[in-house]
Amino acid sequence: MPMNAPQFAVDAIVFDAYGTLFDVHSVSATADKLLPGRGAALSQVWRTKQLEYTWLQSLMGAVARKDFAAVTEQALDYALAMLDVPLAAAGRRELCAAYLSLAPFGEVPAALATLAPRPRWILSNGTLAMLEPLVHNSGLRDHLDGILSVDAAGIYKPSPRVYQLALDTLHLPESRIGFVSSNCWDAIGAKAFGFTTFWINRAGAPVDRHGPAPDWIIATLSELPALLAA
Amino acid sequence: MPMNAPQFAVDAIVFDAYGTLFDVHSVSATADKLLPGRGAALSQVWRTKQLEYTWLQSLMGAVARKDFAAVTEQALDYALAMLDVPLAAAGRRELCAAYLSLAPFGEVPAALATLAPRPRWILSNGTLAMLEPLVHNSGLRDHLDGILSVDAAGIYKPSPRVYQLALDTLHLPESRIGFVSSNCWDAIGAKAFGFTTFWINRAGAPVDRHGPAPDWIIATLSELPALLAA
What is the pTM of this model? Predict the structure, then answer.
């Protein structure tokens, strides 16, 4: 941490799940076994479409909205069509099942432990039926205090109705909630809502320009504990 | 047209502008002059982020929303940062100005002429201050009956509030409005709203999966007139 890094005063920490605590591209190995040489490409298109579909369905309104399990299947079907790779139903099921046991990024368990005793929550696009096995399978259950799904708001991030779920649960002022995401657009949405936000820029990407910049940018979750006021 | 192509009964036709009547990637030539060898890559990232930012700002709500001219500049700044290419202010202005004189796709003028006397309107994410010079500069003014901007709805496509603008203007039942877009997500949004929709699939892409499929898929606008009932 540079000497001039500020100290942020937050009383609870809320994490995005997919891409932030869990590596969505850990499905690549399963994909590559099923579709040799195409796993990484499939994973990339799959993830891109998955996010795009959450935004589009949210804008189209309740009539269009499917939950994240269904959106994940829709996006997989698009990716398979785009790469023009046939996949039997069993393979498709195996890929969707891989979303329930994504690998956490290596530094995550130790960093979460260090952040205690502050309450540590997940606020995710995923359904509870996806998130609960994921947290269990990854061994992170002991390091998290609770899970919030956007389903309770009926819309996806970055709608303010989603970030409101954390406020309603934690009963803290917006700025005393630290929000952490590897998705820059999610960190920007949370910042617009009023949270103190940290963008984990794992890929060295430029900051997005469509809203207020995150408060601080880190390369891995390991950098977060030292940034928080005691 | 295959013998079994249906005939669609519509009384007016509403077109998306960017990517549908006008080739957004016609900025590549200007970009390539300013940034030799990187024009196509810049144009691709620029367009991707431009759309992404319209969806994200729409979801974040009125506090975040900028008009399409501003979004186009935000997306250009991101694309320049991502490609890590420096560009002086004059070059940046030249690229943004190129959006006011995008080239129409080659078949567009003749196809629009054939579609008369049905009312032919544009419904676009662009501002009127962008769309009016674009229509003028491209010589399409005589082939169009009017222009609607999403700005009147205060949100971007595919919000149903945007498609409602066409309904309020044309005073027709939803299904009697033919909606044409090269952006599959836009055709799907219009279909969910109730329009009869045609997707111009110029790139041979798979159909998107997040909502109701367009009524018909064509490769260029030239195919449209023969699909419409007299």
Answer: 0.97
Q: What is the pLDDT of residues A146-197, one digit of tens each?
A: 999 999 999 999 999 999 999 999 999 999 999 999 999 999 999 999 999 9
Please determine, for residue B2, whether its predicted confidence score (pLDDT) is greater than 60.
Answer: no
A12-21+105-227: CATH topology is Rossmann fold (3.40.50)
Contacts of A160 in chain B (CB under 8 A): 60-61
Active-site residue, A168 included:
no
Token duo for residue A222? 């390991």
| Intervals of CATH 1.10.150.240 along chain B | 24-100
ipTM: 0.96
Q: Which residues of B touch A125 (CB under 8 A)?
A: none
**Cβ atoms of B36 and A135 closer than 8 Å:** no
**Selection from B222, B223, B23 nearest residue B104 by Cα:** B23
User: What single letter denotes the amino acid at residue B58?
Assistant: S
The topology under which CATH files domain A24-100 is DNA polymerase; domain 1 (1.10.150)
Numbered residues of chain B with Cβ closer than 8 Å to any chain A Cβ: 49, 52-53, 55-61, 63-64, 66, 71, 74-75, 77-78, 81-82, 155-160, 185, 188-189, 192, 205-211
